[in-house]
Each structure stands twice: as structure tokens, then as C-alpha cells.
Amino acid sequence: MLQPTGRRLFSWAPALILPALVLLVAACSPDQYPQTTLDPRGDFAREGDHILRTTLLWATVVFVLVEGALLVAIVKFRDRPGAAEPPQTHGNTALEIVWTMIPAFILAMIAVPTVRTIFKTAVKPGPEALQIEVIGHQWWWEFRYPQLGITTASELHLPVGRTVNLEMTTADVIHSFWVPQFAGKRDVFPNRYNNLWFKAEVAGNFPGQCVEFCGAEHGRMGYRIVSEDSTSFDAWAKAFNTPPRDFSTDSTADPLVKQGQALFTAKACSGCHSMYPALPLAGPNLHHIGSRTYVAAGSLKNTDENLARWIKDPQGWMPGVLMPNLGLSDDEAKALVAYLRANK
Ligand code: CUA
């Protein structure tokens, strides 16, 4: 009784597998998986993608030929009752040479472009590239633009169509810088500089991630890449490169913002967080934090609720982070959020 049921199921299997595969492929859209490497948006990522596709192509050729030959052999040369022993080919020199040459050829077709790409992506770009220093911290990324006099954190602004050269290091432990749609991964080491270059081809807001386990909150050590056309980028750099607004002497300023600014000093936030464009302190630079898309190292969208949640309870969101819980009241948090929000 069992056998017919099993057979019927087996005959239906191909009809079920195809829709399942279609669904699986449809589920892998880049919208749902923003950290995909299969949707390159920069020249470096495109090189890597090309290698992946080349390798996949040759692997497919090998799979089809080998499995095809196997299936033919299984069916055509299967043993039949009373069949004579087939001719033996062990030690056939011509065959041995052929099946050594074919894999060697395929390996060469993969190795040559791979090695070429490794060398191509390891060079340093010329002085025309935009220089950016990247410094990993537990658990956030600092970005400095020496040519523009800018220090910022957690949001890396880039001009589309211009190569950027990242000189990368870390202030504490080993981290790894990864921006899936623009380039490959690069580890950062203390007292050592690694470089990474790429050119963004489209404007947008993309996620980046630390990809080396660097402590309890490694998983939330992200950042955003904001690529924009050169006009917007220049406008951002110009707006950024201004001293912070002093609301305390501004008679038109919202009283809540003034209260927030006073709290920023009174609660010693200013001891770790610089509000000046080119002044790095121990904590992330907060100049223009009001215009950032995310806060808390790219782990929370920059809304009033999230910002309040983060400054009230950083230890709840990122246990072990250097930023302490200050025991802020709701009103104090509201004032601080208003002040930070006004900095844009
Ligand atoms: Cu930094 Cu993981």
C-alpha cells in the first residue's frame, strides 16, 4: 500500500519544486536584503561581482558536462542480463591527458581574472581621489575628511562618480569595514593603516556594517553611506564646515532648544561629543546630527522617539557601550533631543 503513495508523491515533486524555486528567488529582492552583494552600485563591487559571475559560469559548465556524462553513462552503459564485459580503459594515456588539461584550463580561466582583480583593487588611487580617514571604535565608525576639515561619525557622505580613498585604522580592537554594495571587506588594525577605494555610481542611502566580531555590541556597529551628486555633496561639506550655532545668545531660539544646549554642557555630554566640525573627541562628533538619517551607529532611525530612547538608555540598547545612562528625566531628554535636532 505504501509504495503507490510514495510513487505518486515522487511524480508530483518536480511540479512543486519549480514554484518553490520561483518563490525563493523572488524573496531575494535587494529591497528586502539591503546588505546584498548581488546588486553592485560601485566600480569595486562590480569587479567582485564579475569574478563571482565568471566563477559561477564555469562551475555551471562543469556541472552540466559532468552530471550529463554521468547520466548518459548510467543509462546507456548500464548492466544488462547476459551482457559481455565492456572494454577496459584503465591506463589510457590520451584520456588521462584530456581530463587533466580540461580542469587546468578551467582553473586558469578563473585564476587569471581573480588575480588581476586582486592587484587592481589593492593599488592606491591618485591624489585626485577624495581622501577619507576611517577609524573604528567600539562600537561606531569615525570619518575624517582631511582635505575638507571635517570630522564626523556614523554617516559617510560621498560624491557620486568620484573615487574615494579610505585610509583605515582603529582606536581599540580589530574591526572590519564593509559596505556591501560598493566594495569588499577590509579589516582595520591598531597602529596600522589599510586602504580601500571605490567609486559610487548612484546616489542613495546604503547600510554598512562592521564584520569582525569586536565585542558584545558588534552586531549594532553599523553606519550609513550617503552617496549624492557633487552639488549636494559640496553643499553638505560647506554647511558642515561651519561652527555650531550658539542658541543661548539667540533671542529667536526655541526655549526648549536653549534648555537642551545648557543640559548638553551640564550633563557633561560635551566632554565626549564635539559639536565642532573638525574637533575629534572620545565619542562620536555630533555636528549636524539633526540631519543624519540614523543614530546610535546606524542602528536606529533618527526620529525624536529613537533619539530620546537612545540618550535615555544607551546601556539598554548597547550594553557595555562607553556612553553611560545619565538618569535623564523625560523633560530633560526632550530638551536634549530638541537641541540635537536643531543642529543641522
Ligand atoms: Cu566593530 Cu564588529
Tell me the structural class: alpha+beta
Low-confidence stretches: none
The CATH homologous superfamily of the largest domain corresponds to Cupredoxins -  blue copper proteins
What is the CATH third-level topology name of the largest domain? Answer: Immunoglobulin-like
What is the CATH architecture term of the largest domain? Answer: Sandwich
Helix content estimate: 40-55%
Radius of gyration: 29 Å
Number of H/I helices = 8
What compounds sit in this structure?
Answer: dinuclear copper ion
Mean pLDDT across residues? 87
Strand % is 15-25%
Number-wise, the strands total 12
For the termini, the CA-CA separation is: 75 Å
User: Under the CATH scheme, which class of the largest domain?
Assistant: Mainly Beta
Rough outline? elongated
- Following the backbone from N to C, one meets helices and strands in this order, namely HHHEEEEEEEEEEHHEEHHH
Largest sheet data: 5 strands, mixed
Description:
With 344 residues, the protein is of the alpha+beta class. The protein has helices at 2-27, 43-76, 93-122, 230-240, 255-266, 304-312, 314-317, 330-342, and strands at 130-137, 140-145, 150-153, 155-159, 163-170, 175-178, 186-188, 194-199, 204-210, 222-228, 294-295, 300-301. The strands form three sheets. The protein has a five-stranded mixed sheet. It has a five-stranded mixed sheet with strand order 4-10-9-6-7. Strand 1 and strand 2 form a beta hairpin. Helix 2 packs antiparallel against helix 3 (93-122) and helix 6 (304-312) crosses helix 8 (330-342). It is elongated and about 105 Å long. The protein starts with a helix and ends with a helix.
